[in-house]
Design a protein that fits this description.
Length: 295
């Protein structure tokens, strides 16, 4: 190591070079930030996706619009979304729509896992977008419409057939007699309430129907959601006996409970943890008991 003191002109020249370097540094840093901002906002609609920033993740979203030329062919668009604590898939979709492409279409309403409108196929599984945390998913996050449903646009599917199946089981309370008093409610025991409690949690999201291979191949099959709704009323002690018999007869048909092959796919994807397969099996037992003759 040298201990020689530099001459005055050498020290002056060194200071001047350091000053020039420090003056150029902010400009280079500013350029880097601008390039990073552009990359973060660039989509892969027309080319290769931008490299996501370290604090961002890649969101792959199914796109399809039958009414716009050039968008009729299904594809996936990539969006770079900033990672935030507590972010859900629905939050990420809203960010992508508001930041990059206002034509991105999906259903949502309450954002509290109650309305069931944002059921989606996320990373290969039926889930509620508002209930699914980004932190729980492998990256990139892949979002598609519910399988086995006709796609209307992007992530929106036609739910008309699902609603028709739900209404086919007459999903409302039908007692044989009027309540004892004008202002008196129909009474239910705590034990019976506990028996049907889980079945009342259905939010009509359609996730179970989408996961069911039988429903995918049999358009007339009532499906797990509708059968669960029939269970909810047939097993309610306040329901009239005549109506219970009618419901069990509907369930006992070719496209009713006997089409279920006990694959448990509906139970596995239900966002409200309803034991759908168990309820279907219970209705099978009730239908058999109703048909038993001992004379």
């Amino acid at each position: 190591m040298s201990t020689q003191v530099p001459k005055e002109d050498e020290r002056t020249e060194s200071v001047e070079h350091e000053a020039e370097d420090s003056a150029e540094q902010p400009e280079a840093s500013h350029g880097d930030r601008r390039r990073a901002d552009r990359d973060a906002k660039r989509q892969s609609v027309s080319g290769a996706p931008a490299e996501p920033e370290q604090d961002a993740f890649r969101l792959k979203v199914f796109r399809y619009d039958p009414e716009v030329e050039g968008k009729m062919e299904p594809r996936f668009d990539d969006f770079s979304v900033p990672r935030e604590k507590g972010m859900t898939v629905l939050d990420a979709l809203i960010y992508a729509r508001d930041t990059y492409d206002t034509t991105l279409t999906f259903r949502h309403s309450c954002r509290q896992a109650v309305c069931g409108s944002d059921a989606l196929f996320i990373n290969g599984r039926q889930r509620l977008g508002c209930q699914t945390q980004i932190s729980d998913l492998d990256k990139p996050v892949r979002v598609e419409p519910l399988p086995h449903q006709d796609v209307v646009k992007d992530l929106v599917v036609d739910m008309e057939h699902f609603y028709d199946q739900m209404h086919a089981v007459e999903p409302f309370f039908q007692p044989d007699e009027e309540s004892p008093g004008d202002l008196e409610e129909y009474r239910q025991s705590p034990e019976n309430r506990e028996e049907i409690k889980m079945s009342t949690r259905c939010i009509w999201c359609g996730a179970c129907m989408s996961s069911c291979n039988i429903a995918a191949g049999d358009n007339q099959y009532l499906g797990p959601a509708a059968i669960n709704k029939a269970y909810r009323f047939a097993m309610d002690e306040r329901e009239g006996e005549n109506m219970k018999e009618h419901r069990l007869n509907v369930m006992d048909q070719e496209h009713g409970v006997w089409r279920c092959q006990t694959q448990f796919s509906c139970t596995n994807v239900c966002p409200k943890d309803i034991p759908l397969t168990e309820h279907i099996q219970e209705l099978k037992r009730e239908a058999v008991k109703q048909n038993l003759k001992f004379w």
